[in-house]
Design a protein that fits this description.
Blueprint lengths: L13 E3 L2 E3 L5 E5 L2 E2 L9 H9 L14 H10 L10 E5 L5 H9 L3 E6 L3 H9 L6 E5 L12 E6 L9 H11 E11 L11 H9 L4 H24 L3 H7 L5 H4 L6 H16 L9 H10 L2 E11 L2 E10 L1
Parallel strand pairs: 5-6, 5-8, 6-7, 8-9
Antiparallel strand pairs: 1-2, 2-3, 3-4, 9-11, 10-11
């Protein structure tokens, strides 16, 4: 059992009714069974909005033909060959719990999961059935309510590029791993000078400041037309135009195969909203993230792209010295 602490003064916390309190009288509310260590409204509001709106879209368990999250998780970590029974695993940035579900369903690890947004509420609804093996907290990656050097495994998927300080976020993850513990991260990669020459980065200065409701409504209204346009250019053999200059997620390279027409539309709306709504979007070179991990005290075991299903993801992982 990992002790829960006040992330700001490092004092132990005890539950008193619907609050966690330390010996100095500082308290944090427990709302819907989730301790909350941050303000309800913050720069991740778009994620809380999208994951409570699309609570089950990416959850393998709730989609009979879906194995996308499981494939991605185990391709990135290689933990399917390990016995994680009783191990303490930290997940930073859980969203609606797509990877929480994989850890809980396919291993016997104890999962401590945080998210800065109210996406934790969606995760709770999706995964609360696992009882005490799932411990959820709304907290910042910079101020996690756990002592340093605590976890056997730490993973952070789809998050680092959306934090204000990528490098500091890496250091905070490493701090929570125990010596000999493993840290695995993925992130949006910089592949070359052309990475930010795309509709996504040209439009984001405007879309990230739109209300979430207005942006989602606009994407939903145009989804069918954008899907048809994407497929048109793809059939012509010039898919690069589709995935760079049409304001839609890259269907062929980022979404599961064999989705029904309605499922495809839902994934497109979700992933396109995810492209345009976050406050921060800071892709990095794999070599840069490797360097930062090494400087944080990690002996690198892998730093490259990992293929899975129809896609691939940039991964850096290693063991804390």
């Amino acid at each position: 059992m990992i002790p829960i602490i006040n992330p700001y003064n490092k004092k132990p916390l005890q539950r008193t009714g619907d609050q966690l309190k330390d010996e100095e009288g500082n308290s944090f509310p427990i709302i819907n069974e989730i301790p909350r260590f941050v303000d309800a409204s913050n720069y991740t509001d778009s994620f809380g909005f999208q994951w409570n709106k699309f609570q089950k879209t990416q959850i393998d368990r709730d989609n009979s033909n879906l194995d996308f999250s499981r494939q991605r998780f185990f391709a990135a970590t290689s933990w399917d060959k390990e016995d994680l029974t009783g191990k303490n695993v930290l997940e930073a940035g859980s969203g609606a719990g797509r990877f929480s579900q994989i850890v809980l369903d396919y291993t016997k690890a104890n999962l401590y999961s945080i998210d800065y947004s109210d996406a934790v509420s969606a995760n709770y609804r999706n995964n609360a059935g696992h009882g005490d093996r799932l411990k959820l907290y709304q907290a910042s990656i910079y101020d996690m309510p756990f002592p340093d050097n605590s976890f056997d495994k730490v993973f952070c998927f789809g998050v680092l590029q959306h934090t204000p300080d990528f490098r500091k976020s890496v250091q905070c993850l490493v701090d929570k791993a125990k010596p000999g513990g493993e840290v695995v991260v993925d992130f949006y990669p910089i592949k070359g000078w052309y990475t930010k020459i795309s509709a996504k980065y040209m439009l984001r200065p405007f879309t990230k400041n739109m209300s979430h409701e207005k942006l989602l409504k606009r994407i939903d209204k145009n989804a069918n037309r954008l899907i048809k346009t994407y497929k048109f250019f793809d059939k012509l053999g010039i898919g690069i135009i589709a995935h760079r200059f049409i304001p839609i997620c890259d269907i062929n390279r980022t979404l599961p195969a064999n989705l029904s027409k309605e499922e495809l539309r839902q994934w497109v709306v979700l992933d396109t909203f995810d492209m345009f709504s976050p406050q921060y979007d800071n892709p990095q070179k794999i070599s840069t993230v490797r360097k930062w991990m090494e400087e944080s005290g990690i002996a690198i075991t892998f730093a490259d792209f990992v293929p899975y299903a129809t896609s691939r993801v940039a991964i850096v992982k290693g063991i804390k010295k």
